[in-house]
Fold:
Amino acid sequence: MPDRSITGNEIILEPHDTIQSRTDTRGVINFANATMVRISGYSREELIGAPHSILRHPHMPRGVFYAMWQIISAGDEFFGFVNNRSKSGDNYWVFTRVAPRMDAAGEITAYSSVRVRPRRDAVAEWSRIYADILAVEQALPRDEQVAAGYQALLRFLKKRGFGNLTDCVMKYV
Ligand SMILES: Cc1cc2nc3c(=O)[nH]c(=O)nc-3n(C[C@H](O)[C@H](O)[C@H](O)COP(=O)(O)O)c2cc1C
Structure:
């Protein structure tokens, strides 16, 4: 069945486009720069106060975001390729860094993210990787998808000889 929420039209970032956002500790957006407003198609008012999943594309496996939250909530930086959905249903691929912000005591107070244009060979490769993980997730009931997708991601990394996601992602930067 076609997914009417997506157009299939890809917006390709320009080399100088830098999309920035910040969230609270739950992932609720509290800052979006002008480039994020322009490319996402949402107004600043629509973005501020919305969960960051407002941009989640249905082709992105849930297990990948689980991996992201594991990394950032442990205090580390996440690097990855993400396919986002704009308000119109167009999609745009980004290379993303999401990092925790900490107070003097080392407590996480917020998260910030920066996204730039990814290499096209990275988009081709990560589209395939995510499609395989998504197929694993979609064969299961909703409450089993995240764990199964995360395990599928770990199996993929192991098969390729990587000890962690960041090392694998950095091959495509
Ligand atoms: C700073 C920050 C930036 C994020 N950026 C994105 C993003 O660009 N696209 C996206 O789909 N999810 C992003 N997320 C992850 C979302 O919070 C969410 O986990 C994800 O969209 C999956 O949605 P779900 O948890 O409802 O399944 C970001 C999270 C944080 C903390």
User: Anything to note?
Assistant: DSSP finds six helices and five strands in the chain. Residues 120-138 form the longest helix (19 residues). The first strand starts at residue 19 and ends at 23. Residues 21, 23, 27, 52-53, 55-56, 60, 62, 65, 82, 84, 98, 111-113 surround flavin mononucleotide (CB under 6 Å).
